[in-house]
Write a structure and sequence with these properties.
About 25% of the residues lie in helices and about 20% in strands. By secondary structure, it is an alpha+beta fold. The chain has a single domain, classed as Beta-lactamase (3-Layer(aba) Sandwich), CATH 3.40.710.10. Strands 1, 4, 5, 6, 11, 12, 13, 14, 15 and 16 form a 10-stranded antiparallel β-sheet that branches. A two-stranded antiparallel sheet has the order 2-3. A two-stranded antiparallel ribbon has the order 7-10. A hairpin with a 4-residue loop joins strand 15 and strand 16. Helix 1 packs antiparallel against helix 8 and helix 2 crosses helix 5.
Length: about 375
């Protein structure tokens, strides 16, 4: 029997309102989620649905430990994977609001020595284009860096196109942004995130590094064949993906962004405004030069730390998280203040995004093909 763990809801309604104003009942949601999990061999799933800027639904399904049959709970600690990037970017936007950082000042001007004199960036010594890179380019993925240097043939860091000229998703860019912000603020990213994101929002089970207290309720990750990959106990904070969090905690973060309680109106609008139109055929491989017009109708673009696109329900902002054994996804619609957060401890988790987005939210706008995701079964 599938384990289902329900958490107290902010709203008392027994139905959830979807984008098209149709409703779906709690039993219907349970049936859809459990069916999709079983059909796609997804170990555990957490779902948060947002209505009118509130968490209207928060529930977990499946297990966090198959061998011990321990249920996944709303407070089970999981790696956020690349959902970390959006939380980090939101923190950086607060520093920008406070004028501690300028979006368009070359990041090398914030450093006490030339960028190539840092061991991680010595490969850039012969390419002076590094002097053009700004925090804006690092947050909107236009720096010219690859996703990660270790995915390239020679494992060296290079700038592959003129910074600012086009989108190419880059963990390397976020890593450089972290180094620069840590230099400016004089403290590690884990302290900044704790002070500016986790504590103010009541995210009591979140951290940029593994904490001993997480041992009481954490999730293992599972590969495509259902083999346990164990927990991910990172000891070094990484803005591109080290965050440990829970369904409940990350839902609090999403609610704060959606409701505008974490940033002022102007700063939030800047973060979620299109910085550059995305013309690439697919998100990955990031350096592919193949282009398309397929997403022009939604004006698919990169914001600052988030992807954005246009819909009849206003601007949508989204982010995925992908790591071995972990697949997460969040998308929200700013006008109705509605959205969904999906967190899974399975490498098969992304195979059910399309159906969950369509059936639970009536969201048929997300560019699933561009993101390399499986379309809804109804499409």
């Amino acid at each position: 029997m599938m384990a289902i763990w329900s958490a107290p809801l902010e709203a008392k309604e027994q139905t959830i309102i979807r984008l098209d104003r149709s409703t779906i009942s709690i039993p219907q949601i349970d049936s859809i989620v459990t069916h999709l999990m079983e059909a796609s061999r997804v170990t555990g799933v957490g779902i948060a649905i947002f209505n009118d800027g509130k968490i209207a639904y928060l529930k977990t399904y499946g297990v966090r430990d198959v061998e011990q049959l321990l249920p996944l709970t709303p407070d089970s600690v999981m790696p956020a994977a690349s959902l970390t990037k959006s939380a980090f970017a939101t923190m950086v936007m607060e520093l920008i609001r406070e004028k501690k950082i300028d979006l368009d000042k070359p990041v090398c001007e914030y450093l006490p020595k030339p960028l190539p004199e840092y061991s991680a960036y010595k490969d850039l010594a012969e390419d002076l284009r590094y002097r053009q890179i700004t925090i804006r380019m690092l947050l909107d993925h236009t720096s010219g860096f690859p996703n990660w240097r270790w995915f390239t043939d020679d494992k060296k860091l290079r700038i592959y196109f003129t910074p600012g000229s086009r989108f190419a998703y880059s963990g390397e860019g976020i890593a450089l942004a972290q180094m620069v912000v840590e230099t400016i603020m004089g403290m590690p990213v884990e302290e900044m995130m704790d002070q500016r994101i986790f504590k103010p929002l009541g995210m009591t089970n979140s951290s940029m590094i593994w904490q001993h207290r997480f041992e009481a309720d954490y999730s293992n990750g599972y590969d495509e064949q259902g083999k346990s990959l164990g927990a991910q106990r990172r000891t070094k904070g990484g803005a591109a993906g080290s965050m440990q969090t829970t369904l409940r905690d990350y839902a609090l973060f999403v609610r704060a962004v959606l409701g505008g309680t974490i940033l002022d109106k102007k700063t939030k609008a800047l973060m979620l405004s299109p910085q550059i139109r995305i013309k690439s055929k697919h998100m990955f491989p990031t350096l592919s030069t193949e282009t398309t017009t397929e997403n022009d109708n939604i004006e698919l673009s990169s914001g600052l730390g988030w992807g954005v696109y246009r819909t009849p329900y206003g601007t949508a902002f989204f982010k995925g998280g992908h790591d071995d054994g972990w697949r997460h996804y969040v998308v929200c619609f700013d006008r109705p203040k509605a959205g969904i957060l999906i967190m899974t401890n399975s490498s098969n988790g992304d195979t059910i995004y399309g159906s969950l987005l369509e059936e639970l939210l009536r969201n048929s706008f997300t560019p699933l093909e561009w993101e390399g995701l499986k379309p809804s079964a109804k499409q």
